[in-house]
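Subject: mismatched residue count in predicted assembly?

I count 634 residues in my input, but I want to confirm that the predicted structure covers every chain. Input:
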Amino acid sequence: MSIASNLWQRLGGAPDPRSDREIQDDIEAEFAFHLEQRERDLVARGLSPEKAHAEAARRFGNLDKVRAECRRVQLGGRIMLQRITLLLLVVLLATVAWLSFQSVNSQREAQAEIQALHSEVSQLMLALEKNPIGQSSQLNLGLSNFAPRILNFAGPSGPRMPKPGATEETTSLDTWLARFRENALSESHTPETALLLRQQCSQDRALELLPAVWPKLGWEQKLCMIDVMTDGGSEPLARAAVHLGATDVDARVADHAFLKLRELTLLRFDAAHRADYLAWHEANKDIVLYDVVEKSAPALVKELLGFGKWNEICALYSPLVLHPDMPGTAAFPDFLLEAGALDLIKLWARDPDPKARVAAVQWLAAAKVDEVTARMIVLPILAESAPRDPALLPAVCEALVTLDCTWRSAPLLDDLAKVMRKQQPERAELQPIAVALGNFSDQEREAQAEVPTILAWICRANSPLANEVLGDSALLHLTGVAFDPTHDAAWWLNWWSIHRANYPNAADTENGLPRVE
Amino acid sequence: MAEERFQLLPGTLELLVLRVLLRGELHGYEIASAIQQRSKDVLQIEEGSLYPALHRMEKRGWIDATWGQSESNRRAKYYALTKKGRVEYTAQSENWERVSGAVANVLRAHLSGGAIG
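Triage response: the counts match. Full output below for your records.
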């Protein structure tokens, strides 16, 4: 017998239309008829009615037991069905409850995501207002711009697909020109139209439109176009824009294009040697720029090591870290180190020019040196009594965080001690240290180990300057406590007594704060 | 000497009921009486135990049950063999024949001193 038919029989076969009550009544009626027949039979054989009744009952056996057995047979399937139904109902309810829980969770997560996106968009809008994209710092590559930075280069991968609803594939050249004029690029440098061309056209269409538009652009528009295409455009678009610029009759455009080419490829061409560039371009048309970089970088570094002036080296070498999207990105720091970056860093770290030392620290992070090497380079720089460049502490802070140094707060706390031990600590000295310490709050750490030491210094000095600078620039970020002028040593001691369990116990002193004297 | 009565072997009640119902539609009391009469009162069944068996057989589809009028004009439940019940009867009776024959053979061999093992 198959499992299905066995189960069907266990469940009682076809459903019985009778109610439970009717089934029980039928059972009773059947038993009563049987007993009555037997009694009549026995009376007919000569037994008295009383004896016949007793004999019939005896022959029938245990009436209750038989009744229960018949009920079980008749209602067993129905009871089993009821149990299965109940079980399914419980499972269904549990599933509904689980799905509801999941749904609420998903909704909550989605809301959090939306809020985070809102916040990100607000920050971006704020940043755009403060620093319009068109006013690229790359137009003026001064010494202050040598810091390693990320060039948002889209990489050599395929064409950008047009966004949904974009009709730029069919937009005429005249329409594009009209858009450029409407945006008045020559006055404001707003690169909106260039961005449209880059983002909403397919790569093939953009490559077709760019040379067609180029002769009709003003020189500032051309600079803008080069910037937009090299900072976020695809590799072919960037190269096309640079090539158009490099071959432009306007020297300002050509100079800018060659500057970009140097950033992208490390190759140093200029307008005076345009023929050399054209020969190189012709010979390397089919090679992506990243391959050019990979080939030219080691030779360049070797050459740079012979330079005596750090700023010249830095100016020439900085493009190396502008290529985070170069094939083998993860191995890039290794490549930098192999190319001799560490020698350059050590060279700069000993340079008398304060800016050279800043550059050394900035390159530590770019080259991803190990913690020990970083310590050997950073500590002597911080220990020097020579005047510091304002960019030094932020650079140290960023490098130590990027390198995830476990000892990162130690040199800054030493620095803080040096300043605080002075009779009259100056705001100009204290502020950068406090800001740098506050920057460590971004890191996900179990506890902010710097807090007790900073509090100890506040308690020791209890001066309005220390209270304000350390409270507003460091503790605000490390503890989340908004600065208030009333937050003096006593106030912080009280705060510490409440929150000290959240922080490492820095020293075995009466109030748990380290001794700083 | 008082007449000796025997309890039914497990599983044989259903076979007996199927056999009795071969002759036609009967109610529970008639079935119990028929079994007793045909066994010449040798097989003793507790009459009540007949009904769970009947209900089980009804559930299995071997017999059909309908309410009707008895000879005494009382409402009674009548059972009739179904096609499935006839097939079942054939299978069970053949099985019984084989088993009882085998048991008889063994017993005869033992009584006549033959080897049984």
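Chain B has a mean pLDDT of 85. Marking this ticket as 'not a bug'.
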